[in-house]
Write a structure and sequence with these properties.
236 residues; alpha/beta; TIM Barrel; nine-stranded mixed β-sheet; two-stranded antiparallel sheet; 10 helices; globular
Length: 236
């Protein structure tokens, strides 16, 4: 599924088939997010995660419904390289600390979702952007790093699915506040957006969804990914 501003999910096809195609296209890393799990109080679907992990030739990160140390253990035991934690990371930071102590901080990614406020400024949100934390992005990012997260997946809700470019100011604000890698997410519409997130925003990596599953102005569904030659040229 692909969303726009965390709403209006659009069906794209079978996830296992998409993973197989991304394998063939030699994707660098894939992030699988079950965006409805926490909101529906559903734990990770371990059987399905195992099926996905067995198909992945590239490193895989998984997020969605992870709220206990046992969830972390079971997900990583399936061959997943990193867990991505949003709501539980904010509501229970010691979970990050405990997971990092056992598996290393490189396996623990804190997901920081950011929404614009009506009165101006930005605030972090949880539960698929339905609940406010009343915390600023830089503040929460520092807290997640302090709790043990080895990476931050930084997503702008306002830019999600719009394909109009990343929120570069948000990326700059967060990367300046922490020392761990920040993965920019939300808004990529063309390959140059990836370069700008890294070169101008200061992100360590750029993540995208719509860019790699839609084609043309009518957004026909076609899984695609730039070749290694194109990626090398983009960041050279």
């Amino acid at each position: 599924m692909k969303t726009t501003q965390f709403r209006d999910p659009r069906y794209l096809g079978d996830p296992l088939n998409a993973v197989r195609i991304f394998n063939e296209k030699e994707v660098d890393e894939i992030v699988i997010l079950d965006i409805g799990a926490t909101r529906r109080a559903r734990e990770p679907d371990f059987d399905f995660i195992g099926d996905l992990a067995s198909e992945c030739f590239m490193p895989m990160a998984y997020g969605g419904g992870i709220s206990t140390e046992e969830h972390v253990r079971r997900v990583l035991a399936l061959g997943v390289e990193k867990v991505v934690i949003n709501t539980a990371a904010v509501e229970n930071p010691p979970l990050l600390t405990a997971a990092a102590a056992v598996y290393g901080s490189q396996a623990v990614v804190a997901s920081v979702d950011v929404k614009r406020r009506w009165i101006g400024g930005r605030e972090c949100v949880t539960r698929s952007a339905t609940q406010s934390t009343k915390r600023a992005p830089a503040e929460l990012a520092r807290a997640m790093e302090g709790a043990g997260a080895g990476e931050l997946l930084l997503t702008s809700v306002a830019h999600d699915g719009k394909m109009e470019g990343y929120d570069l100011e948000l990326i700059k604000e967060v990367t300046a506040a922490v020392s761990v890698p920040v993965i920019a997410c939300g808004g990529a519409g063309k390959l140059d957006d990836l370069r700008r997130a890294v070169r101008e925003g200061g992100a360590s990596a750029a993540s995208a969804g719509s860019l790699f599953v839609y084609q043309g102005k009518h957004k026909a569904v076609l899984v695609n990914f730039p070749s290694q030659e194109v990626r090398d040229r983009l960041f050279s």
